[in-house]
Design goal:
heterodimer, A: alpha/beta, eight-stranded mixed sheet, five-stranded parallel sheet, 17 helices, globular, B: alpha/beta, Growth Hormone, Chain: A, Rossmann fold, seven-stranded mixed sheet, 56% helix
């Protein structure tokens, strides 16, 4: 009898201990799948909308409130045009530079940094001056940046061989041959950065359209980045990983598919410098490029109308009809205007713009878009793992993901280090975009959390206990893909032709999806609209 | 039964291996020099096993009972070995003696195990088979232990929990042996009770090892801990030994009541005495109120604003009698105003500039504190001090961290401050440095408040001289986007401190 009691107590004790050890590890995870309204977008394909009930007039309609649309609005506004409207499908403006905020921090849902702009990026610099990002210029003419927006040190670290190392280029377990190839690679990239073609233009420039047309550089658009490495004899597995990482990072696509011209562009185009920062510095904010969106919205948000699905853009004599379906009132409306800036991607235009719908353009199949998954994880402070201290950008070697950025990294205030938000980037690039898009839509929330936490766990074993909330965002068409031959091919040339009174503005026209290109397209389109309105002798109205 | 017996050899041997590895690892953690620690501990352990084996011949009766007793003892001593080592590291004068005696005891007991077991089993097996089987399982068990240790135990359980786990295994072997041989063992019941008691104690240790580790940390201060609490920002510990009161934040000494007057006189007076009629003073950090005590010696001062991140420190120093005696109850002086806030945030919103600002932050040992020594912060500071005023910044040791010290000075230079670096000797800290900064050059003061114990015009003239081993070196400027100061600091202090 006594023995039985003893066992009873031992079991009770053991059970209690086991509970104590493992409590909390099996709680359900807070959060869900968010994402661009693919469902609303699909309404477009069916094309069944109620008849127009209300008609209004304005000078210009901007279709799409991402960076290019907002930049077009910014330009119109500062050039004195105030009669325009932005129509945006989503609940908020910002496109793939959108951001979110919870009680811990603001955080990005997509684009999250801008490298220091070079001298050719005139509009980026103008915007930065307006926003106080650039605070002045030194005697040499170098911009002085607001130091709170320059990415704080430590910027990047890589988890490799069980420890965190400084910087992203692998350093441990690397042979002398690898290092030799690193050196050769960066020497080549330095050469390309300084290279100028026969036309006197920089070989790899931002904006892309200001790049040299010298065939000795354009030829790189004909091969993939992977082929370039083979041609140059760069076989180091570490270098290959690094270059592939770069291609995934900027283009959401493996280096086997990325044009070598675009691959080089990633390394060779940035020449921006600052009087008060190192080269290669980047500008970032807790909410990523959402900060820029929010500042633009402060300036032009009043012209924006969200939840508006534009389903028809049609030229009629001297005017253009823009028909849209208001997702909140569930009613169709029409805006009649003199010009349209179409700042949504081209695959959307092919469903919306009547001329393109009636005669599907031959260039369309060349425009492919990389799907992405972005997750935001609200976590308690993670246990310090081996190696250097947490950085802004934290990358896992040979992971399918790109790792995570820390939203609170730019905070200067010493808040108690209890919680932060980590933004985790995952380009869906194993298969072809269409196939990956379908797979992504089919995945459940649990599938995503298993995948994300599985990846994290290799680096942060305590992720599960520290996780407060995990939200997932699927970008079905996250970025234009600069595939082999795309940047300097005939298809892209085709979409650059001006087609008044409908002017296009989207980074897919540049072939790469970065803030600078989107802004350039938006400002350029606005300038064209201004010229167009002037040539028509149409007076600007207030 | 034979299989089970041989399995027990396997378990015993794995346990022995793990204890040996735990002690070696702990000794190299705590004493450094892993090659020496591993070699000597493995040597002592094997030697002690020899001693055990030798002693075994003198045991004649009740072999099984002794075997069980030995198992239990190994379980208890081995299971608690890492806890004991952690707990006693700071308490005993010669830690090595403790490590070697502990590992010697475990080794001795483990050395007894195998000969005992062979003698118990000799009736069950043919001799040549017995020897061969026992040693096979012994060596395979050792392999298992040595593989489990780095791959599973250290990364997943940690040292303390691992030793408890293996202690439990030893006791389980003992309990099993008790059941098996209960016919041949006298006093089975007391032995059983003892075994279950050990099991419970070890399991308790296993489950609550986190709490034990935390407790051992509190004990690793040399003096009597009279207060210890964790705030969201830091761990605050006060110790007292005789008259000497010491404050530690995150294990770093902040002051010793014996010589803090040197530090605080040097922090405040070279700057404040150089000013004409200072009225408004700001103290950033310094929640111990000791800088306030010095500032209150100036009659012209009308308001002192103190900004500290951690209200726990301030509460402690405004309420505890012994601490109030130390800072002259400065927090209850009507001139003193208190804000619990982040310094960056507070300065950003402040409108009224100050005559004098005391910046007494912790050393720039991590990236989050490093931001408080950046151009961005110093620019903000510049805006918050009057053109005829001054700022003083505690700037770590110019002797240990020469580059770090001069980096603070040069970062201040880069944001258009005039600077005057100076240093002094504080016995409990060593050589320490400050940088005085202002819009315009300041004179070296000749007159100071009454009753200073360290500072006078002559000492101050010496303080601004830097001997060659601390003389100025050219460094980078600390910005948020490069944080060179933190890198210098880590580099320099890691050479100085050996953990």
């Amino acid at each position: 009898m006594r023995k039985k009691w003893l066992w009873f107590f031992i079991l009770l004790f053991l059970g209690g201990g086991a509970f104590h050890l493992y409590q909390g590890s099996h709680q359900p995870i807070q959060g869900g799948i968010m994402g661009a309204s693919s469902r609303a977008g699909h309404l477009l394909r069916e094309g069944k909308f109620p008849p127009v009930e209300k008609t209004t007039h304005t000078e210009v309609v901007i279709v799409g409130g991402g960076i290019s649309g907002l930049s077009a609005a910014w330009q119109l506004n500062r050039k004195g045009i105030h009669s325009f409207q932005i129509l945006e499908l989503e609940k908020q403006l910002g496109g793939n530079a959108q951001s979110g905020r919870n009680e811990v921090s603001a955080y990005p849902w997509g684009a999250h940094y801008v490298p220091l702009p070079g001298p050719a990026e005139v509009y980026v610099r103008q915007l930065f001056e307006e926003l106080g990002v650039i605070q002045g210029y030194d005697k040499k003419g170098l911009p002085r940046y607001n130091e709170l927006y320059l990415c704080s040190d430590p910027q990047e670290r890589l988890y490799l061989n069980g420890t965190w190392q400084d910087g992203l280029l692998p350093q441990t377990g690397v042979t002398n041959e690898d290092r030799k190839q690193y050196k050769a690679f960066f020497t080549a990239m330095d050469y390309f950065r300084g290279a100028v073609g026969f036309d006197g233009k920089r070989a790899f420039c931002i904006p892309i359209d200001l790049s040299s047309q010298d065939p000795s550089f354009l030829k790189y658009d004909q091969i993939s980045m992977a082929e370039l490495l083979v041609q140059k004899g760069w076989t180091s597995p570490f270098l290959k990983w690094y270059v592939d990482y770069a291609c995934k990072d900027d283009y959401g696509t493996h280096m086997e598919k990325v044009s070598a011209w675009a691959g080089i562009h990633y390394f060779a185009s940035r020449i921006g410098r600052a009087s008060n920062s190192a080269e290669n510095s980047v500008l970032t904010w807790p909410e990523g490029n959402g900060w820029l969106v929010n500042r633009l919205v402060e300036k032009v948000g009043a012209y924006g109308r969200c939840n508006s699905l534009v389903y028809n853009v049609e030229k009629r004599d001297k005017e253009v009809w823009v028909d849209f379906y208001d997702l909140t009132t569930q009613k169709s409306e029409r805006m009649i205007c003199k010009a349209v800036i179409f700042s949504a991607p081209r695959f959307v235009a092919s469903h919306v713009v009547k001329a393109l719908r009636d005669h599907p353009p031959a260039y369309l199949p060349a425009f492919t878009y990389a799907p992405w998954m972005v997750a935001n994880l609200t976590v308690d402070e993670l246990q310090h793992s081996q190696g250097v201290a947490p950085a802004w950008d934290n990358v896992f070697f040979k992971s399918e993901s790109l790792g995570y950025v820390t939203a609170t990294h730019q905070n200067i205030e010493r808040y108690p280090k209890t919680k932060t938000v980590l933004t985790y980037y995952y380009p869906l690039c194993e298969g072809e975009p269409t196939e990956e898009r379908q797979k992504a839509i089919a995945r459940s929330y649990k599938d995503w959390t298993d995948l994300i936490l599985g990846d994290f766990k290799k680096v942060h074993p305590d992720i599960k206990e520290k996780l407060n909330e995990l939200n997932v965002w699927i970008w079905g068409h996250g970025m234009i893909r600069p595939t082999v031959g795309f940047i300097w091919g005939k298809e892209r040339k085709e979409v650059l032709k001006s087609t008044p009174p409908i002017f296009f503005a989207h980074s897919d026209m540049s072939g790469i999806s970065i803030f600078e290109e989107a802004q350039y397209r938006g400002v350029k389109a606005a300038d064209e609209v201004l010229k167009f309105l002037k040539s028509k002798g149409l007076k600007q109205s207030k | 039964m034979q299989v089970l017996l041989l399995f027990s050899i396997f378990a015993i041997s794995a346990c022995g291996m793990v204890y040996e590895l735990i002690s070696s690892t702990l000794a190299s953690y705590l004493l450094g020099d892993s090659i020496t620690q591993f070699s000597t501990i493995i040597g002592v352990y094997l030697f002690a096993m020899g001693v055990g084996a030798y002693l075994c011949q003198h045991l004649q009766k009740n072999l099984t009972g002794i075997f069980v007793q030995v198992e239990l003892l190994i379980g208890l001593v081995g299971g608690f070995s890492s806890t004991i080592l952690f707990l006693l590291f700071e308490q005993v004068s010669s830690f090595r003696v403790l490590v070697y005696s502990l590992i010697g005891l475990v080794g001795c007991l483990v050395g007894l195990e195998l000969p005992l077991l062979m003698r118990i089993l000799k009736t069950h097996f043919e001799f040549k088979k017995l020897v061969s089987k026992v040693f096979t399982f012994d060596y395979v068990g050792a392999l298992l232990g040595s593989l489990l240790f780095p791959l599973v135990l250290v990364p997943h359980l940690g040292l303390v929990r691992s030793s408890f786990l293996f202690g439990v295994m030893n006791v389980l072997v003992a309990i099993w042996a008790l059941n098996l041989f209960k016919q041949s063992i006298p006093w089975v019941k007391p032995l059983k009770a003892q075994a279950f008691f050990y099991l419970l104690v070890l399991l308790f240790g296993f489950v609550y090892s986190d709490q034990i580790t935390r407790f051992t940390e509190a004990l690793s201060y040399p003096d009597r801990v009279i207060y210890s609490k964790s705030s969201p920002y830091q761990r605050i510990v006060l110790t007292q030994e005789g008259e000497d009161l010491r404050l530690f934040l995150n294990g770093n000494l902040q002051f010793s009541s014996r010589d803090e007057y040197r530090y605080h006189e040097a922090l405040v007076h070279p700057g404040l005495s150089a000013l004409q009629n200072p009225k408004r003073v700001l103290v950033l950090g310094g929640g111990d109120g000791l800088a306030l005590r010095e500032i209150l010696k100036y009659r012209s001062v009308e308001t002192i604003q103190l900004v500290d991140l951690d209200h726990r420190v301030v509460d402690l120093f405004s309420n505890q009698d012994s601490l109030k005696a130390l800072n002259g109850d400065s927090f209850h002086n009507p001139k003193v105003h208190l804000a619990v806030a982040d310094a960056f945030e507070w300065l950003k919103t402040n409108k009224d500039p100050f005559d004098f600002v005391v910046v007494d932050f912790p050393d720039p040992s991590n990236f989050s504190i490093g931001k408080l020594y950046s151009t961005t912060f110093f620019n903000l500071l510049h805006k918050n001090v009057k053109p005829e005023g001054a700022v003083v910044i505690q700037s770590t040791s110019p002797y240990v961290a020469r580059k770090s010290f001069w980096c603070v000075a040069q970062t201040l230079d880069s944001v258009d401050f005039w600077t005057r670096p100076y240093h002094l000797y504080v016995p409990s800290f060593g050589e320490w440095g400050f940088v005085l900064a202002s819009w315009k050059p300041l004179p070296l003061p000749e007159k100071f408040p009454e009753g200073l114990k360290f500072l006078n015009a002559v000492t101050l003239r010496n303080m601004v001289n830097f001997p060659p081993d601390m003389a100025m070196v050219k460094t980078g400027v600390n910005r948020l986007d490069n944080q060179v100061l933190v890198r210098y600091f880590e580099n320099e202090w890691s050479k100085f401190l050996h953990y």
